[in-house]
Structures are given as C-alpha cells and as structure tokens.
Amino acid sequence: MQIWVDADACPNPIKDILFRAADRTRVVMTLVANKPVRLVSSAYLRFLQVEAGFDAADRRIVELLEPGDLVITADLPLAAAVIEKGGLALNPRGELYTVENVRERLSMRNFMDELRGSGVATGGPAVLGPRDRAAFANQLDRLLAQHQQRSAP
Q1: Strands ordered across the beta sheet of 96-97
Q2: CB atoms within 10 A of CB 1
Q3: Whose CA is closest to 74, among 130, 144, 132?
Q4: Is the CB of residue 118 less than 8 Å from the CB of residue 89?
Q5: Residue scoring higher pLDDT (113 or 26)
Q6: Which of 18, 43, 138, 140 has its CA at a distance of 20 to 30 angstroms from the CA of residue 94?
Q7: C-beta separation of 65 from 71 below 8 A
Q8: Backbone Cα Rg of the chain
Q9: Mean of pLDDT values over 7-24
C-alpha cells in the first residue's frame, strides 16, 4: 500500500497527521500538487509536482495508483476514479468513500453546482474542526492497521 495525497487542497493539520502516520507505519506517502508544498524530513515522504492545470494532480494520482493504495482527497470525481481503479479514498474529515456513497455525493455535488450556476448562494463546507481531525486520524489508523495485518507474514 502507498498513500497518495491530493495536496493542493489538503489542510495542513491533516498533512501533519499523515506525516506522523507515514513515519510510524513506514508506509510511503506521496504528496501530489501543482505547486510546492511543505514537507518534513522523512524517508517515507515524497513530493511530485505536476504541471499547472485543472485536475492535473488528480489525473497523475489515478495514473500512478495501484489497487489497494489509499488516496487522501476531498475531490469527489477523484475519489470515484480511485474506487473504480481498486483504491481506497478517504476525505480529510475521516469519511471513507465507497461505491455507494461516492455516487450519492457526486449527485449532490452536481445538484449544488446547478443551483450555484442559477445564482443560488449555497455556502461552502464547514471549517475543519477538532472532531474532523480526530475522525480522520482514527479512520487512517484503522486503514493502516488493516494493511499491516494483511502484510504480516
């Protein structure tokens, strides 16, 4: 398993959790973005800069992703592509995307886009709070523990 991070929009507190988890579990993690991101020094962290452009990081992640890899993203189309390719997708609030819930979320996203396109103010996502960070850390720990159990001789 490798961890891929859609780093352009990943909140810094979530990156910090990921950095610690990669070191603790010795799982390679690659942050993919179209601009430089802050990294800590670790043998398990990589950074891949892609060209600027709409969804360039998403396309590169899907291209490099292997079945069973974990992708950290709040981007629903990316999460759907990851699941389709046999990967796992986890959002920064700790929600693990599945075939069922990603379709539902995509439908809602498209509906909200239509509302915004017609001039309706829909607001944005809530601020990432301590409960969200804890939910993310707990879900990440569960996924990494499952991976280690499967990898154990």
Answers
A1: 45-49, 29-33, 3-6, 70-72, 88-90, 96-97
A2: 19
A3: 132
A4: no
A5: 26
A6: 43
A7: yes
A8: 16
A9: 95
For 123, the token pair is 């607001």
Cα 138 to Cα 133: distance, rounded to the nearest angstrom? 9
What span, in angstroms and rounded, lies between the C-alpha atoms of 27 and 30? Answer: 10
* Alpha helices (H) along the chain: 12-25, 56-64, 76-84, 99-117, 130-151
Contact (Cβ atoms closer than 8 angstroms) between residue 12 and residue 39: no
| Phi, psi dihedral angles at 38 (to 5 degrees) | -75, 130
How far apart (Å, rounded) are the C-alpha atoms in residues 71 and 2? 8
Q: What is the pLDDT of residue 78?
A: 95
pTM for this entry: 0.87
pLDDT (tens digit per residue) in 30-74: 999 999 998 899 999 999 999 998 889 999 999 999 999 999 999
Q: What pLDDT does residue 112 have?
A: 63
- Across the chain, mean pLDDT equals 90
Judge contact between 91 and 83, C-beta under 8 A.
no
Q: How many residues are there in the chain?
A: 153
